[in-house]
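can u pls check wat happens w/ pyridoxal-5'-phosphate
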Amino acid sequence: MGISHRNIFLQNLAQTSDMPLALEIERAEGLYLYDTEGRAYLDMISGIGVSGLGHRHPAILKAIETQSSKYLHTMVYGEFVLSPQVQLANLLHQVLPASLDNVYLVNSGAEAVEGAMKLAKRYTGRSEIIACKNAYHGSTQGAASLMDSNYFTGKFRPLLPNIKHIEFNREEDLDKISHDTACVIMETVQAEAGVIEPNEGYLQAVREKCTETGTLLILDEIQASYGRTGYLFAFQKYGIVPDILLLAKGFGGGLPLGAFISSKNIMSCLMDEPILGHITTFGGNPLCAATAFATLDTIIKDELWEGVERKSKILIEGLVHQKIKKINHCGLWMAIDLGKFELVLEVVQKCLGAGYLVDWFLFNSHSIRICPPLTIEEDDLRKFVVDFLAVLDGIN
Ligand SMILES: Cc1ncc(COP(=O)(O)O)c(C=O)c1O
């Protein structure tokens, strides 16, 4: 008898923790993942914020088919005129504010963060970076330097110098932003902290302070954009425009793609002194750019942000239980606070048993992450509420 896939997974694929979910996936379609025993799991986390259109959306499959019949990789990013990249850039230009008219396509969220930090340093000639406590911007050494958690970064030091941390939503901390600051990087809505929205006026105050000091404002919308908050881009909800916008995760529609987006004026710094200020081989891979175009095009045509508030209301109103301490939410994205990690782990396992995939948050491990595909129907959500409450009832 051959060695099981599970054993090879555990033995020969690097593990990131000693408690992987270890579901063996056979296929995925729409809202559902199917394991090798044919069990269906409703994906209530969208592969951690990726599958906003669900799995294997027909528009994505069509884009893959069409593009793969033409070409895949041809040349490193930035040398050739490639229609999938051009179409994507053009569509982004149509839906973003005029000052965000220039996109640099990369491989991942972390690379978008790296590129944006380099761009801010190069443009301003400054080196200080200000980031928020409890923010997650990626796991490469530059992006990890932005984390304030010594638990996650202590063993990897030294990391980037000259990074200061402020408390998200604390306006007094904005005094730390000065003429020495190259950029402030923050999530428009804090994701791994457990879906923390900016208070009214907070992002305006950040914007003003950045403008006043010549500091670039980088908004990381790697989890928050593409309809999740009820707006195509989350910053639209708060009435400000960043100098640099970061996209990844759902951006590629299930294929790996990231982007940092700015003005042509700022971005042109990466062209000289030094030439090739950021280089990437696979950034903007034609297949990924084609699926990214199909994703954005579908979201816009279907106005997927439209149903978000109505759908989220079903969860907010339905999820009332003595074990639920509170719910943070922003659009169809929420953190259900159960008070302790052990309970969260038990609920995650029992939800799997009931046919639902849920998860927890990096910096808020006492809460359950809910972030379903935006294509989910209201009846699916009603059923989830009933089943989730039954899971909670079944725990002593
Ligand atoms: C808000 C945010 N920024 C950046 C990243 C890094 O993205 P990636 O995992 O593609 O490097 C993540 C990933 O979880 C994220 O949630």
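The mean pLDDT is 97.
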